[in-house]
Amino acid sequence: MVAETLFAVRRNARLYRRSLGAVVRAVLEYVADFWILIAAGIVTQSLGLVFLSVVMSRVPHLNGWSYPEMVLIYGLAGVSSGIVPVLSDGIWQLASFIHNGQLDYALTRPAPPLMQVMSAWVGFNGVGDLVASAAMLTWALTRVDVHWTPLNVLILLILMISGIALRLAMCVVANTVSFWLRMPMPMFAMTAWQVGELARYPLGIYGFGLRFLLGAAAPFAFAGFFPAAWLLDRGGYAWLGILTPVVAVLWWIFAVWLFRRGLRRYDSAGH
Amino acid sequence: MALLEAHDLTKTFRRPEKDPGLRGSFKHLFQRKYSTKTAVGGVDLSIEAGEAVAYVGPNGAGKSTTIKLLTGIVEPTSGEVRIGGLVPHRNRVANSRQIGVLFGQRTQLWWDLPVRESLALLRDMYDLSPDRFRAQLKRFDEVLGLDELLPVVARKLSLGQRMRADLACALLHDPRIVFLDEPTIGLDIAVKDRVREFLRQLKAEGTTIMLTTHDLGDIEDTCERIVIIDGGRVIYDGSLAQVKDRYARERRVHLQLGSELTVTELADRFPQATVTAGAEGRREFTIAFDKAELTAGAVLAGVAQIAEVLEVKIDEPAIEDVVRKVYAGELLLAEGSTP
User: Fold this and answer.
1) Same domain for B117 and B266?
2) Is the Cβ of A161 closer than 8 Å to some Cβ of chain B?
3) What is the ipTM of this complex?
4) Mean pLDDT by 10 residues, chain B (339 residues)
5) For residue B288, is it within any domain?
6) How far apart are the C-alpha atoms of B205 and B198, rounded to whole Å?
7) Fewer CB within 10 A of the end CB, N or C, for chain B?
């Protein structure tokens, strides 16, 4: 049983990699698009940082957080959201796949349909996001006041990976809603993504409503702010950061369940 | 047990009922009204391994929906399907290894990739060994001329080339049963012939085939069984020869005579037949009759007694004519016929 599961996981991982690789080769057919998208990612992230810097030059501490700490949160959230387009940009096409009946063939192949959808496209803007966010993160990590031990480096890595997994799951859930909405555009998911941008700042600056939204209902805060709070051992939020892996697993279970429910509603197109 | 068993298969769609125009659409936001449309209603079907079945019917009859139900793409509203003991929409992954699917209207090739890469991705999904993959490509090259398409990016393919590549995709893993939904749609004669040749070969190799088409030329030399569907219901299921035998009995003998005759003179001689004069008035006639009541030989012998026969041409109706009449509602086929 365990061996079978492991075999399936390895097989799917290989298929996922092969599928993404094929798309990368396809995108590289259009060289200009490739560079423009990467540049776009870097510019977007840098603009966000400029905004943050302007604010922080007026107020040296925001809700008790210093500038490097703010950049740490910003960069951490940026890394997790930047990986989503690289690993699963195809999920944004789910709404149009459903609308145009383009899931037909995916459902007749021996690979999980969700995997086939996620790996249907690669968003190179994510590479730009990642480069810029990783640079911010590196800059911030060398400036914040943390006593580094092998253990907290390891835990930080686990929290980052969990944060990425959580963002992916949330993105799947937000797009899977398209099975019920039937619009050719993923409006719901795009709105949700915008909400996620709010989670790149300390949660304490918001009122109760937004704190509840970002910390519990749509817990984007686990993909940046809570892990940062844990690392910096800050306030009442530190213990929440360590829960990130649990939250990520729960969201993935929900995402897979929801996607399966959605597929049962799939009607294809035409007769 | 048959390879494919479908029992009382039904699919209904819920359709919003809107008044026309923007106004109607706004109204629908607040007063939701839906109607249900039955795309497929209670289809029973059983296909034995090795059979080749033509599934025909007018546009909107429910052909594609049936294929989507049988392949597990869409869940039935009610009823059951089993292919090789598996329920397609419950065991999609296991089922996909035994079925091959082609929708002529839609490609499964990766749009921005060369055909070779699409096939390689499918090879990985179906866990084909490199040797097996090479052997398959060679086989497809022989009938479909695949080699020249391998380096071409899918979006640059012509329709005929695309269909050939898609056939290779559908059959790469040697499925036990293959569903082909309009595999010759929009193709020119040369490519059509190639596809038909490929179908004949598949049949000879023992692959079970279910084929929908509007071009009945596709089925005449491949399928021995025909299922006709209309309004989501099977209205005929039986052998192709039997359909022809039972419903394509009309024969037309065209005659050119050396001497002049009148329509009445001929009609009196053959009361069971319909006689019409041709373009050349009294020297050209067409005699139509039911082959169960009269034979072409008897007609010729009868005419020869009263006039010299110069030219003879005998027309047999194609299966196409039969199906056309069924579509038009001129012919009611006996229900519940089995092969």
Assistant:
1) no
2) no
3) 0.85
4) 93 82 77 84 94 90 93 95 95 94 94 93 95 95 92 94 95 96 89 90 93 85 89 88 78 88 86 84 87 87 88 80 73 52
5) yes
6) 11
7) N
